[in-house]
Amino acid sequence: MTDVAKALLVDDRRENLLALEAILQGIAVQPVAVESGEAALKQLLLDDFAVILLDAQMPDMDGFETAGHIKRRERTRHVPIIFLTAADRDSHLAVRGYSVGAVDYLTKPLDPWVLRAKVSVFVDLWSKNRQLQLQAETVREREAQWASLTEAVDESLTILRDGAGDPSAVARAVHVLETARWGS
Description:
CATH class of the largest domain: Alpha Beta
Order of helices and strands: EHEHEHEHEHH
Strand order of the largest sheet: 2-1-3-4-5
Mean pLDDT: 90
Largest sheet: 5 strands, parallel
Low-confidence stretches: none
Shape: rod-shaped
InterPro entries: Bact_response_regulator, CheY-like_superfamily, Sig_transdc_resp-reg_receiver
Radius of gyration: 26 Å
Organism: Catenuloplanes atrovinosus
Number of domains: 2
Protein name: PleD family two-component response regulator
CATH superfamily of the largest domain: Response regulator
Helix content: 55-70%
Pfam family, one: Response_reg
Number of strands: 5
Distance between the termini: 28 Å
CATH architecture of the largest domain: 3-Layer(aba) Sandwich
Domain Response regulatory: 6-123
């Protein structure tokens, strides 16, 4: 797992990507900019992202098709997508965006403060989710340690019961407990 939240920026126009990177400055997110849907799908195989800012209208594979591929993949289906478009406020395009899994659909020119606020929310959610995953991992490790120690105690008790009166039984039982405790 990575420590830094990342935002995938997808737009076929380099100047739009530079503008998005500038808008996101100062937010605890690392922008990763790509210029096509195909490049976005490749990038999603390499990294995990807190949010995707996706241009709706691109040549070859448009944003809607790209989003469809993203949402069909198990690894990426839960990554929030915010569509960005220069198209007029055609409600059919917005509905199409939501129907392929977008969490929002913004038209250009973008209000940079609104976009920053939306990205910040998803970065915060990503960070909290990462903390929960780490805590769950810690709990699983402790449960495994507990199970190992419990097994060692049970084995030691059996050794002591079966070896009643045998001085070496105590030494064997202690060895089992020490081995379990130190993981040797």
